[in-house]
Amino acid sequence: MSYLSHREMLGGLESVRVVLPGDEVMSYNPDSSGGSIFLGPGLRWEDGMVRAAKAGLLKKTSRHLYFVDTHQKRYIPQRREYVIGIVTKKKGDIYKIDIGGSEQATISFLSFENASKKTRRDLALGDLIYGQLIVANKHMEPEMVCIDAYDRAMGMGVLPAGGVMFNVSLQVAREIINPDCPFLLTLSKKVKYTVVVGMNGRVWVKAAHQNSMVALMNCILMLEYMTPDEANEKALKLLEALM
Fold first, then answer.
1. CATH of domain 2-69
2. Where are the domains of the chain?
3. What is d(CA 95, CA 124) in angstroms, rounded to the nearest whole number?
4. Per-residue burial over 214-229, b = 16 or more CB atoms within 10 Å of its CB, e = otherwise
5. How many helices (H) and strands (E) does the chain have?
6. Cα–Cα distances in Å, from 85 out to 13, 40, 146, 152, 157?
7. pLDDT tens, residue by residue, 167-213
8. The dihedral formed by the CA atoms of 185, 188, 190 and 192, expressed in degrees to the nearest 10
9. Which coarse location class applies to the principal site listed for this UniProt protein (predicted)?
């Protein structure tokens, strides 16, 4: 993810619009003091211009993050993104993690809160891990950590047993990753649950009962082919039938 300053935005950027690869999105002056933005997936800066690298809907979040929203299912690792991975192999002090990309990520046993050689935590094959990518480029394999810059877990680490993980499109993952997502807040009024969303299109949910977790999974999957309002109505009916 790139961090750029900008002065001028082209008309229409504040509203959703369709872009194609090569389309000009906004101009940018590195010496400008007009604010800062984050460039997410599908955008590239080159020769003083931000251009689209993928076809899709150009969107902006409240935190000045711009990205191209597509129905892509294959995940392309991006630095600083939070993902859910599956432990697949141990090699010395390094674990291999499947994050859904073309290459597996790695994580050191020291990349956890309060980890040391004496207090190291052994991971089992198949464990689910929620963490952040600190290395992600075409020349190196992705590297993952479960601590922030101050060595705090901040919710990252091995996910508890008893939950269920499933895959959604990257578009749906971006829609529900916001803690204040209206759809998830509506579900929480009917069922108490915990949810973890990875930018790689993986969602993990845990509730008190198995049937509640299956219902929650089906509710979230409705967003693949329904609008949030349509899914909201269907989800409420489904959850009410369980109560």
1. 2.40.50.100
2. 2-69, 82-158, 164-242
3. 10
4. ebbbebbbbbeeeebe
5. 4, 17
6. 34, 21, 11, 19, 10
7. 998 888 988 987 778 899 989 988 999 999 999 999 999 999 999 99
8. 180
9. cytoplasm
Question: What DSSP designation does 118 have?
Answer: S
Q: pTM (2 decimals)?
A: 0.75
Task: Return the DSSP state at 164.
Answer: E
Same topology, domains 82-158 and 164-242? Answer is no
Domain at 82-158, CATH homologous superfamily? Nucleic acid-binding proteins (2.40.50.140)
Sequence letter at residue 182? P
> Are the C-beta atoms of 199 and 73 separated by less than 8 Å?
no
- Scored b (16 or more CB within 10 A) or e, 30-51 reads eeeeeeebbbbbbbebeeeebb
Tokens representing 114? 């309060």
pLDDT (mean) for 86-107: 93
Dist. CA 102–CA 94, nearest whole Å: 19
CA gap 8, 11 in Å, rounded: 9
pLDDT tens digit sequence for 10-27: 333 345 688 888 888 888
The residue type found at 152 is R
Going through 164-238 in order, the beta strands assigned E by DSSP cover 164-167, 193-197, 202-207
Contact assessment for residue 71 and residue 127, using Cβ atoms and an 8 Å cutoff: no
